[in-house]
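General statements about sequence and structure are easier to judge against a single worked case. For one protein, we set the task of working out the C-alpha cells from the amino acid sequence alone. The sequence in question and its C-alpha cells are set out directly beneath this paragraph.
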Amino acid sequence: MIKNLGNNCYLDSVLQCLFHTKSIQRYIKVDRPKDPVSVAFVNLMRDTLRSEGNPETFYRLVKDAHIDFDNNYHHDAHEALMVILEMLSKSFGRISDTMFRSKSRRALLAWGKQYNIIDEIFRVMYRCVYRCKACGHELTNYETDYCVYDNVLDTEQLEHYRCDRCKSVNKTVRKQSVFHNPPTLITIHKKNVPEDKFRFGDALYKPFAVVSHVKFDERTGHYNAHVLEGDEWVLKDTMDLKVKFKPVISFSEII
C-alpha cells in the first residue's frame, strides 16, 4: 500500500498500476538505477509491494517537475501518468537492443529517439497513411504514444490539410494501424474496460490493473486502483468508498 499523504489519489492510483507491471518488476531485479528519479521510484515500488511505501520523496520530484501538481487540488490521473512516464523515460538508462521489428527500428532511427526500458514496455507504434482523395497521393509516417485511445484506429477526414502534390485542401484521409505492439498496453477509456482478453493489432492482451474515478462535483473526486493478484481483483486504496466508480485507465499485458 502507498501511505496516504493527502489529496494525491491521482498519483497513488497510477503508481499502483505501474508497480504491478510485471515487466518493470523483472527489470528492477537485474538493474540498479542511479538517477534520483529512478532511485526514488524503485525504492517506493519495493516498499509498496512489501508492505507500505512512503511516496514523499518521489512525489516531491514529480511536483517539482510539474508545478501544476504542487498544491492540494484534485488533478487528472491520465495527465499524472504521462508526467511520470516521461520522467522515468529520461531517468532510466538507455538500451541499445529493442524488441521493435527491423522496419520499426529504421523508423525509430529516422524519428531520432533513443529508447529505454519504459519506452520498451509501454510505447505503441502506429503506421499512419495519409491519402489524398483528389489525386491519390499517399504519405506514410510512423508515430508512437504511451497510451491507446478508444477510437485510435479510425479513419479520419483531415480538416485544413493541404496535399503535398495537388495542393487540394480538405481532401485527405488518415488511416492509422498498429505497427508495433508493446508488452504492456495502457488504454484511456471512454467506454467500458474489457474484462477478459482482447485483440489490439496483432496481439492478444489481458487487463491486470485498472484506474477508476468517481466525480463528487465540478472540482472534486477520487481515484482508486484495482490490480489482479492471482485470480482476484484487489482494491488498492486507503479509502473504501461505497460509491460507483467509472474505469478510466487500464493496463493490459500481452499474452
